[in-house]
Amino acid sequence: MGMFARYLKYSRQTIVQAKHEADRWGSPEIDPEHILLALLNDAALTNRTMQGISEKEIGAAIEAHIPQGERNPLPHDLDLSKTARAALVLAEGEADKFGHRDIRNEHILLGLIESKNSFVAKLLAEKGVSADHIRRQIVSSSGDAHSGCDQAIPLIGLRSRCPSGEHGRSRQFWEKGLKDGCMSESKYGAP
Questions:
Q1: CA-CA to 143 of 20 to 30 Å: which in 22, 77, 90, 164?
Q2: Range of 108's domain?
Q3: For residue 48, what pLDDT is reported?
Q4: CATH number at residue 101
């Protein structure tokens, strides 16, 4: 399985858009700046997470920071820079913390924020975009802390949607999970 196997379709499209941004700037690789420029195209994400923050200002700051290179007109692939790859690894970790099986743009944004030494992380912090704010938005958009992830628990045939990890594999936690709505019986039944 590739690095992007867990990415939802629109999140994979964000990475493709980041490649186009890198191409537009004549960059030899995809950097976090290109990923953030691509994320700014996700109106739902920016409306939820960047209220009161000018996306145009962020875009202008990035564009002032990125060196302009010569565009390559031929079809080609671009690799992720080390910093961009590290940010996407952090995004995967953020999805795991919530118990989300799929990686969404919110997780990618969190990964960019958490990549402390990057220009993008510093820019977002300067503009008031914090990881805690994004995490609260993820929880509130899910309805509550226990919805939205639908992660399969192997071996016992249950489906857990509990990002807090509160509902484990024992019968006691399974019954509490059913009551709280975080578990559902599969064809295998209870543990």
A1: 90
A2: 9-141
A3: 85
A4: 1.10.1780.10
Whether residues 130 and 173 fall in one domain? no
d(CA 39, CA 15) in angstroms, rounded, equals 9
Kindly state whether residue 191 falls inside one of the protein's structural domains.
no
At 140 the pLDDT is 83
Three-state secondary structure along the chain? CCCCCCECHHHHHHHHHHHHHHHHCCCCEECHHHHHHHHCCCHHHHHHHCCCCCHHHHHHHHHHHCCCCCCCCCCCCCEECHHHHHHHHHHHHHHHHHCCCCECHHHHHHHHHHCCCCHHHHHHHHCCCCHHHHHHHHHHHCCCCCCCCCEEECCCCEEECCCCCCCCCCHHHHHHHHHHCCEEECCCCCC
| Same domain membership, residue 41 and residue 135 | yes
pLDDT bracket for residue 142 (50, 70, 90): low
pLDDT per position as a tens digit, 64-78? 998 888 887 777 889
Same domain flag for 137 and 163: no
Task: Say which range, 2-6, 108-112, 120-124, has the weakest mean pLDDT.
Answer: 2-6
Decide if 4 is inside a domain: no
Residue 93 lies in a domain: yes
Q: How many structural domains is the chain composed of?
A: 2
Q: What does pLDDT average to over the chain?
A: 78
**Per the structure block, which two tokens stand in for 95?**
């999805």
pLDDT in tens, 36-48: 999 999 988 888 8
